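Let us practice reading a record.
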Amino acid sequence: MKSANFLKENNARSLWHPMAHPADSQANPPTIVTGGSGVRITDVDGHEVVDAVGGLWNVNLGFSCDPVKKAIADQLDKLPYYSTFRGTTNDAVIELSEELRDFFAPDGLSRAFYTSGGSDSVETALRLARQYHKIKGEPGRVKYLSLKKGYHGTHTGGASVNGNANFRTQYEPLLPGCFHIPAPYTYRNPFNETDPETLAGLCLMALEDEIVFQGAGTIAAFIMEPILGAGGVIVPHKSFMPGVREICSKHGILLIADEVITAFGRTGSWTGSRHWGVQPDLMCTAKAITNGYFPFGAVMIADGVAEVFEKDTSGAAAIGHGYTYSGHPVGAAAALACLAETKRLNVPENAAARGAELFAGLQAIGSQCVVCGDIRGGQGLMCALELVADPKTKTPIDKATIGKVQEIAYQAGAMVRVSGPNIILSPPLVLTADDVQVILSALGAGFRAL
């Protein structure tokens, strides 16, 4: 590795960072992470902290998961790459597909289409949804519905169904035929409704209204996160996703569950859909499928959707879509090892327990802190604090102030993530109770510095 001085001198000089202004990265050099062990990371100066970001929602098993590392190394020695395009495959991806079929059986999902990551998985699901309707003789079903505040990656299709202007405005015009309904976000919504169950009902009414307005026969799919992640950990009432499922089924609209974040234990259940008792038609996965150690993803497909494709005799079901790295053998090997370890550790159980501790601690901090406008979480290890300059007007806090909280928390022992006015926490699912207290103590220091 180059010296610390070299790294600092050249930090962001030749690199554009995702989700950042290039000039800002140069003016405020990013933290240079050089090591990771357990649930902790170490920077170029040797400062070690608990990683309350979990890499980027994906390092569920921490940075020292040896079974996954070994599986990657062994597969590189055996077969480092081969295509799964028509006519060839590999042994690792066949084995993984059978394991995923068993894992996702309670979700009603039995086929896998492999991708290179979350944005790829969303793009794949959107495309398969349109093709499904064309095979069925309904080529007019081309539109997509989604939630405001939802996040679905950064490809053009994903950005088009995204519900946050930050990922849309500079890249418009986007894909036509994408329409959004209000999210069940009690702190900010057009109905001025704070009761979660009542708000869920209002949002479902808005969905029904939009379907009637657009015409059900023009809509291919509704895509949603079971719990909205990057939009600020927006947790819907338990009636919301089942209500969406019922409406979609009534109108012949496919339900795509974007579980790039929530699959594999994050919510305290094995999947976010299972958490709410829903079986989607398609499910997007990535991130924790390899513990973040290898770029990999999968779209899981329900029996009913699979049957339409597999029984087609017209040729319309031929899939003209895929990625060079779809079903990559190293990624498949990593996913096999990761899935086995995820099940062995029963991570949803720990995620639920530690998540409850973290959420309670954040509520205690919020009760003493005037800038904490809203504290969200309570469903596994995904929490957020929304900071405001004025709790009465709910004016979002300025960038400098929330940045100060983040920096002080980092110096006090925890890496936290800032997204707009939100501090988002998504630590590894192998977090201990002591680690939770480190995060809470560090955040407390950050708020006391204001």
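A brief commentary: DSSP finds 15 helices and 16 strands in the chain.
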